Amino acid sequence: MKIKILDLNLWNYNNWGERKPKIIKFIKKHNPDVVALQEVRDDVKFNKKGNNQAKQLNRELKYLYYAFYPVTDKRKERPEQYKRRCMEGTAILSKYPILKIERKRLRKHHDDRYTCGNLYVKLKAQKIIDLIVVHFSNSSYFSLLHLLETLRYIKKKGIKPIIVGDFNIIDSYVLHEITEEDYKSSLSFKEYLSYPPANYTLDYILIPKEFEFKSFKCLGKDISDHKALVAEINI
Question: Is the entire prediction scored with pTM above 0.85?
């Protein structure tokens, strides 16, 4: 079978009024089976409590299945800036039924101000598909520790998920060294820059070695500070 995945860091509420209809149009155009999102905010300055950005998008997109992980309380992460309720996390929109949802907090390392966690779902398509959405720490060192922790979690659970999201890992060589035994990366399939402001690649899709990329694109203008990843994967 084939699955089409679209991944995007939403860039929280920056220019949201202008970007939101563009994001909706972009996702509708590519018509993925699964949408993976990072920097999804539930911020009472901009929305009613619980009406996070993924929910707002899905009112137009109408995916039947949805999961959200509000991993970061911005009041705790940046108390000097956030006095109001503001949660940030990751989300999944899916055409396929979600059989299981697991929200896994990642270890918070000394001197790392960021709180991170993985959103794991089990999808029921023609085959059962495991998928993890990640948004690792905004630090090359701590993000690598988060990747290693994620791989240990996968091994312990005995699963081979697709891993997608904002890895915040600039050194793709290190990422490949760590994952190449079990995974293929989108960057090994096709070179791209997913974070144009710094000419970096921070966003990846990792697929188990027995899967194949049928197609892959990194694209999207004025929808975020990141570009979107759109992949068709043979499973």
Answer: yes
